[in-house]
């Protein structure tokens, strides 16, 4: 035990990644502000220094002359190969578990694991489909961090590979609007892995759902500018995020927004296109080409999601809350118009014949959002273009008149200081108020079912991280089916997409009887009025509007629940 991450280990992994630093080179830690600061870590292994791998080579290559994000970087092989035997041996000797080195050698290359006992868990702060996230204190540096504990399906190599891809991608990215991976926690004997991430107090979904929070136009511009800047960096590094939504946009107390959760992200090469899965992006934020089965897509998928977020921030509610893929596409066509004949012909999308609407729809974005600030409309029109090539790029979006006309974006530091607000807080509020109302109702009229609208509604997450590996996962899932506890929820089989087949009470469940009102956008004021839709994942709505007031008692019981969970789950 007692390893420190970031100490360069001797390794000759033939990696295409440009993360690796020279042996013996002085190492330092890139701090979020962009300053670089040497940190000597007195780990049990003694004297090693913490480093951030992703930062090193850029400096080496660029000598500080080239603007970040502009240079094309060589990319690691996303399909990851096992390291040569001697490297595997070195990694195990350095403290990495053998199972991890065997499958994800390239992702951990050049780093050394931190020991779990060098962190103190403070609170559970988030729960994703394949992870639990904790606030923790680094006892060596005293810094508060987020620890994302990744669950594995019996350490099945496919799950480990997905996690490895997330690590590789995070190590490639270095931008103030992208969350930084600071290290990894595990040990030779451990069956789990924690990602050490910079700690962020809020996420945009939780913030927007906080009672009383209403964003002004300069604030919306500020968040959107940061989102698009982060996306610009990802795309310049040939990374598609593929799950942009409010709960994946983290915000610190200084108002800085960072894109997080690269669990569905993928490298792409615009010059050598390889088919990718269309089964990504949370349903409400999923672009039409993916719903129509495209496997040849690009940055447009993230720009579509960004367009949905922009309109949602201005409207105060999700703009297209579909329950199934079919309904989602229908909502898209009703708002954005159905594609032209030419588009159907040109795109050759696999599901075109099934999903092509019999009736054609006229685009009505301008009428629907007539109360939005005028400068936002051209940007929304571009981002929500049915044809992905018309969505242009994050760089062009940043130059749009939305950002160059008054009122300008405010400074992140001038944003109000909010109490900590996470998607998880909203979820717990929802659960608590549902429980209380269900209890009240049961008292009133026996043990009848709770009203359908009492159930939390969330955007349906992308069904799997990477369908290229889906066949293997399905096969393995059959084998491990009996062990429900270790089942990875990140990679449900395809039939669980849309509203089909989620078990009642599971986080994926959407009550089929729940019918989100078709939003009369034309009657919307630019006052950020909140819709009566209760939700905790992705959408940015106000639970106050659905009768889930924030009460101290709730908060306390949420805290108790948190501590109980932490105790149960252990480190
Ligand atoms: N660096 C961080 N700082 C603070 N909170 C975080 C951090 N990273 C994640 N969280 C919280 O944990 C939640 C889940 O994290 P994340 O989205 O990375 O996990 P996931 O398992 O990939 O989830 P998803 O179901 O969205 O794919 C986030 O919505 C956020 O509230």
Automatic annotation (TrEMBL):
<keyword id="KW-0547">Nucleotide-binding</keyword>
<keyword id="KW-0808">Transferase</keyword>
<dbReference type="GO" id="GO:0008353">
    <property type="term" value="F:RNA polymerase II CTD heptapeptide repeat kinase activity"/>
</dbReference>
<dbReference type="InterPro" id="IPR011009">
    <property type="entry name" value="Kinase-like_dom_sf"/>
</dbReference>
<feature type="compositionally biased region" description="Basic and acidic residues">
    <location>
        <begin position="55"/>
        <end position="68"/>
    </location>
</feature>
<dbReference type="Pfam" id="PF00069">
    <property type="entry name" value="Pkinase"/>
</dbReference>
<protein>
    <recommendedName>
        <fullName>Protein kinase domain-containing protein</fullName>
    </recommendedName>
</protein>
<keyword id="KW-0067">ATP-binding</keyword>
<feature type="region of interest" description="Disordered">
    <location>
        <begin position="437"/>
        <end position="463"/>
    </location>
</feature>
<feature type="domain" description="Protein kinase">
    <location>
        <begin position="119"/>
        <end position="403"/>
    </location>
</feature>
<dbReference type="InterPro" id="IPR017441">
    <property type="entry name" value="Protein_kinase_ATP_BS"/>
</dbReference>
<dbReference type="InterPro" id="IPR008271">
    <property type="entry name" value="Ser/Thr_kinase_AS"/>
</dbReference>
<dbReference type="InterPro" id="IPR000719">
    <property type="entry name" value="Prot_kinase_dom"/>
</dbReference>
<feature type="region of interest" description="Disordered">
    <location>
        <begin position="1"/>
        <end position="91"/>
    </location>
</feature>
<feature type="region of interest" description="Disordered">
    <location>
        <begin position="483"/>
        <end position="504"/>
    </location>
</feature>
<dbReference type="GO" id="GO:0005634">
    <property type="term" value="C:nucleus"/>
</dbReference>
<keyword id="KW-0723">Serine/threonine-protein kinase</keyword>
<dbReference type="GO" id="GO:0032968">
    <property type="term" value="P:positive regulation of transcription elongation by RNA polymerase II"/>
</dbReference>
<feature type="binding site">
    <location>
        <position position="148"/>
    </location>
    <ligand>
        <name>ATP</name>
    </ligand>
</feature>
<feature type="compositionally biased region" description="Low complexity">
    <location>
        <begin position="40"/>
        <end position="50"/>
    </location>
</feature>
<dbReference type="InterPro" id="IPR050108">
    <property type="entry name" value="CDK"/>
</dbReference>
<keyword id="KW-0418">Kinase</keyword>
<dbReference type="GO" id="GO:0005524">
    <property type="term" value="F:ATP binding"/>
</dbReference>
<dbReference type="GO" id="GO:0000307">
    <property type="term" value="C:cyclin-dependent protein kinase holoenzyme complex"/>
</dbReference>
<feature type="region of interest" description="Disordered">
    <location>
        <begin position="532"/>
        <end position="571"/>
    </location>
</feature>
<feature type="compositionally biased region" description="Basic and acidic residues">
    <location>
        <begin position="557"/>
        <end position="571"/>
    </location>
</feature>
<feature type="compositionally biased region" description="Basic and acidic residues">
    <location>
        <begin position="20"/>
        <end position="39"/>
    </location>
</feature>
<comment type="similarity">
    <text>Belongs to the protein kinase superfamily. CMGC Ser/Thr protein kinase family. CDC2/CDKX subfamily.</text>
</comment>
